[in-house]
Amino acid sequence: MITKLTAEERKSTLAELPGWEPTVGRDALHKSFKFEDFNAAFGFMTRIAIKAQELNHHPEWFNVYNQVEITLSTHEASGLTQRDIELARFIEKVSAGATRS
Amino acid sequence: MITKLTAEERKSTLAELPGWEPTVGRDALHKSFKFEDFNAAFGFMTRIAIKAQELNHHPEWFNVYNQVEITLSTHEASGLTQRDIELARFIEKVSAGATRS
């Protein structure tokens, strides 16, 4: 059983993940990304999709044209866990092409 | 300039697109899809993404694990146009693997 992040883990984690904000009303993290066009946005999503499958941990996300909104939370723990941090780190790594968040 | 669908066009179109419902509060169409797993859901999205790029007409969509929520509307016309119908028809064609909508 995976457990929720402690207050200390959250603090240190958020410091290293710029732009990721706690979601209002639930224990989750959220970030918005904007790319040059749909090709760049969906390419970004595809890289994340492949990684998510490998981690067996999937994002909740919304896309319209060049915008991608991502929410991370762990269903099994009803909140934020190390799995979300691992996926957020990967997302940061592949978000280099984002024109702004 | 692309124009919005007429009342008659909407009626005949909705009859041939089962499950597509007018969105409350805006001139758009919406449908929910559920697949066996994330692989099937994202594969479905990928086929639509490639088609959307070809049509230069993109969906608004939300995905979490095996669920995909799609909204179609034409920004340029502030409402439903023939482009949305064309994309909806393609989506229907590739949604065969959906376990239920």
UniProtKB/TrEMBL annotation, chains A, B:
Belongs to the pterin-4-alpha-carbinolamine dehydratase family. PANTHER family: PTERIN-4-ALPHA-CARBINOLAMINE DEHYDRATASE (PTHR12599). The keyword Lyase applies. It comes from Pararobbsia alpina. Transmembrane segments: none annotated. Signal peptide: none annotated. Its EC number is 4.2.1.96. GO terms for biological process: tetrahydrobiopterin biosynthetic process. InterPro entries: PCD_sf (IPR036428), Pterin_deHydtase (IPR001533). The gene is phhB. One of its GO terms (molecular function) is 4-alpha-hydroxytetrahydrobiopterin dehydratase activity. It catalyses: (4aS,6R)-4a-hydroxy-L-erythro-5,6,7,8-tetrahydrobiopterin = (6R)-L-erythro-6,7-dihydrobiopterin + H2O. Keywords: Lyase. This is Putative pterin-4-alpha-carbinolamine dehydratase. It holds the Pfam family Pterin_4a.
